Every structure is written in C-alpha cells, then in structure tokens.
Amino acid sequence: MRRAAGDAGPVLCVLMAILVLWYAAAAALNLQWERDQAERAGRAPSLTQMLSAAMSQDRPVLPAPHQVAVEIWKTTVDKKITSKRSLVYHSWVTLSATLLGFAMGTLLGVLLAVGIVHSRALDLSLMPWIIASQTIPILAIAPMIIVVLNAVGISGLLPKALISTYLSFFPVAVGMVKGLRSPDAMQMDQMRTWSATTAQTFWKLRLPSSMPYLFASLKVAVAASLVGAIVGELPTGAVAGLGARLLAGSYYGQTIQIWSALVTASILAAALVAIVGAMHRRVLRRMGAAA
Amino acid sequence: MIGRIAQLPPLPLAAAAAALAWLALGAAHAPAGMPPWGWAATLGAWACAWALVESLARSGWRHAGLAAPAVFGLTVLFLWEAVTRGAGVPAVLLPPPSMIAERIADSWHILWADFSQTFLKAVLIGYALGCGAAVATALLIDRSEFLQRGLLPVGNMVAALPIVGVAPIMVMWFGFDWPSKAAVVIIMVFFPMLVNTVEGLKSAERMQRDLMRTYAAGYWQTMGKLRLPAAAPFMFNGLKICSTLALIGAIVAEFFGTPTVGMGFRISTEVGRMNLDMVWAEIAVAALAGSAFYGAIALIERAVTFWHPSQRR
C-alpha cells in the first residue's frame, strides 16, 4: 500500500497532463472550423470568443472533456434507465454479454488447462493450437459468427458472449497450465509419500497453488471479454449496447456520443479489472497467503 | 479401447487412420448422403488419430512436438470435411474445407488485393510507427523516475481499455483509406509496447550499470551495450503481443468504412451476401498472415536474444 500511495502524486500529475493536452488538442482541432465559419460570415471575433465557441460545438472534431462529461451525465443520471438513449441501459446490454462470455471463457480455459496438465497427449497436440488460435484475428470472424448464429435462430446475448468466450479462454488456459504446474518436485513428492490420489493432489496442492496465476489471467481475460462484446455488437446493425452507440455515432457524425460511449467502456473495463483484483486479494487472504 | 490400440507403434496407426479417413471421405461424397459404414469409418479414423497422438506422445520421438499438433490439426480438418459433407450441412452455415480451398484458388487476386491493402499498408506501417514511437517514448521516460512512476500505472490501465473503440474517430479524422487504419494500429500497439520497453530498460542490474560506469562508458554506450540488449527479451514480448493486436485493429477499423478493398471490408460485405466460403477464405488468409507475422518476430527474437534462458536448448 505504501508504494501505491507514493505513486499517487506522479499518476495524478500524468492524468492532469493528459487532460491539459486533451483541451489543447480540442482547441487546436476545433478552432479551424470556427475560423472558417467566421471568415465565411465576414466576422472577426476575438480569440477568446472563438475559443469558447470551439469548446461548445455540436459536432466537434474532438470534443472537450467537459462536453463528454456533460453528455455522460445527461445520458446516465438524467435519463430513465429503461430509455433507449440511456447509457446505463446500453452499458448493461454490453456488460451482460461480457460477464456471460467471461464466465464461459474461464470455465473452458480451466477445463482445458486441467486436461493439458493431466494428459501428455493433450499437452502435445492441443497446446500449440491454443497458442496459434490467438494469432488468428478472431474479431474479424465476429460478424460471421453473429450472422450465422442469427440464421440458425440464435440471437441476442449468446453470439456476443461466444466472441467474448473465445477472447477470454486463452489467457485463462495459459495461466492455469502454468499455475497447475507451479508446485515444485519436492511438494509433488510429498503428496506421493502420503499416497495421495491424482484427484487429491489436484484439489489440495495443484489448485490452491494455481490461484495467483489464475487471477492474474482473469484480469487480462475480463478486459478482453469487454472488447469482444463491444466488437460483437458492431455487425448486428447497431441495436443496443456500447458498440452500437459507437457505430450509430460514427454513422451520424455524433462525435460527443462516440467519446461518451468510449469513456463509459473504459470506466467499465477499469471497474471490472478492479473487481477481479479485489477478489484476488480476498481469496489470497482467505488462503492465508500474504496479499 | 483407445488406450489399448495406443500401445501400437505410430506407423501402423498412421496408416490405419489415413486408410479409414480415405474411406470416410469417399463415402461422404455419395449422392444419397453418408451411408452408415461411412460414419463408422469416420469414427474409426478419429479413434486411430487419437491413439496415434497418444502413441506419439509416448514414443519420445524427436519430432513428436511437431507431429502431434499436425495430426491433431489434420484430424480437425478431416472431421469438419466429413461431417459437413456427410450430414449435408448447408454451405451457408459452414462450408467444408475443400470448398474454401477451391474458393482461395479461384479468387487469389481479390485476396491478394485485400491482403496488400490491409496487411502491407495499414498493419505494417502502423505497427512500425506505433512500436517505434513507443520505444522512443520509453527512452525519454527512462531518464525521469517521476514520469516512470506516473506513466506506468496509466499505461497499464490504458492497455486494458477497449482501444478498438477509437476506430470510428480515426476514420472520421483520417478518411476511409489505409491511413485511418494505420492510426488505429498505432494507438493499439503504443501502450503495450511502452510498458514492456520501460519494464525491460529497468532489467539491467545496479551492479552491471556500476560496472559500465567504472569503464567510463557514456549514456549512449551504456544504452547500446548493456541496457538495450538486456531489455530485448521484454521488448520482443511486447512486439509479439502487438503483432496480433495490429491485425485485429486494422480489420476492425475497416468495419467503420473503407474503400471497396480490404480484409475487414470483404468479410463484412460477403457475410451480408451469405458468401461464407469467401469469408472463410479471407479468414484463412488472415490466420496465415497473423501466424506468419508472429512466427517471423519469434525467429528474429531467437536470433537476437539467443543468450536468454528461454531461448537456450
């Protein structure tokens, strides 16, 4: 904790710098348009007038941070949650697909890892393919999965969740294989002297010692799930969800809407990673390890 | 049962699997659909292939690490072909691999045009610029401990964010052609590369740096002879992660608007027209390009960081 407190100052400084840079960039990018407008109208407004106008355009090239903040406030707090224009509603659509995909991906990853650790044939034949599977840009396949499943009559949550599953199973599988193999020879020998069965060794030694690896991978996996769910929403024709907000915003040139969806997605990602981190500390404390 | 036949040496098992697979594929092409003995042959071929992998795993053969995944991959391809042909799965749902191969052979010039638009322009240029900028930034940050402590947590956080979302903005700013896709790639690869490089630059130990000082080495000499080589394993890790990210970024960015060429464009339009064999052909090209890109970087890594424990054999 002491280290985290020591880093707070520099992190805040960097965040402030990013904010200042953002304002400067917004001013620079949006002023051009204001200047053109003024020239066309034959006016010669002062720089401060132009600056304040540049900060409150309807469709700025780059919206200023406070515009995005106002938009998020308007679409979360001021709108009813059930409204189609509420960001809370859209976030929930994305979040539910993310969580379902994350759960399925974690389960698949753990099962694969258990199989790989216990069978040499699986280890030899499956492991290279698991790694190769990630060099395939799965997000490119997303539209096809959605459309094909739609044709079979499966639509809604599951197709999106499947894309999240594909993205999240990999870090879990790789991390768990490492984790389940982390007990050293001495510990494995100890289990053997107690004539423990494979199942007992698994539950009492392998699984507990894999927990740090599992949670480290879960943090990566949950972020990947969110990306999968957002991209999964793109090809369905922008119905609901944060991805749909991005697509609709890009169709109609609503830059503020795009940025607010983007910032919301980032907050969601940070919150999910933080939740997994909190679970990690809790589990480690329950197991008696120093967090 | 499979355990029993897995006791056999690999060679007869491979022959049996191949013969049964040949029988099953022949049966799958029967006009009246797959006869029952065809399904039996399919299952038999699968069992033999499984036993072959087990037998290979036990044989301790030098190339088992290469042969086992190859057998596994061929088995998957075979099952895919036999089931889609045999059960008459409509090509709209899942075309058999042979149909995809035909499509690749027929329309390689379209595939090549898409490949050069997406991969040779957007991915490679964006990747080079993004990783280059990240390394340069890391070298700058490296001189200030304050910036490091502030930027690293932020960089780690940004690496977890759904960066793909900036794609519509980049398309708005830089137009439909490849520069907007390259911009998305730059943003996607920047932070993972930055974090890995900064991490790597820290890996040279105090003692080693002190030794460089006793040799009266300057900043650039210490950098070139000690710290950059020490950072190389970390940097290659970042480069490998970024290679897959770059391809994803470029393809997804194309969903938001492109000229009428490019892998992402082709995939989204052909899906709309239900030309699934073309989509799969494009996916095969993407998978091949992604694997080759990753493999090339892994090869360079082996040549450059041959001294690292993970590369020694």
TrEMBL record, chain A:
Ranges for domain ABC transmembrane type-1 come to: 87-280
Tell whether Transmembrane helix is among the UniProt keywords: yes
User: Which keywords are on file for this protein?
Assistant: Cell membrane, Membrane, Transmembrane, Transmembrane helix, Transport
- Gene Ontology BP terms: transmembrane transport
Question: Which residue windows are transmembrane per the record?
Answer: 92-117, 129-149, 161-180, 213-236, 256-278
Q: Which GO terms describe its cellular component?
A: plasma membrane
Query: How does the protein associate with the membrane?
Result: Multi-pass membrane protein
Q: Does the keyword DNA damage apply?
A: no
Q: Which InterPro entries match?
A: MetI-like, MetI-like_sf
Tell me the compartments it is located in: Cell membrane
- Family designation: Belongs to the binding-protein-dependent transport system permease family.
Protein name, entry field: NitT/TauT family transport system permease protein
Annotated source species? Oceanicella actignis
* Phylogenetic lineage: Bacteria, Pseudomonadati, Pseudomonadota, Alphaproteobacteria, Rhodobacterales
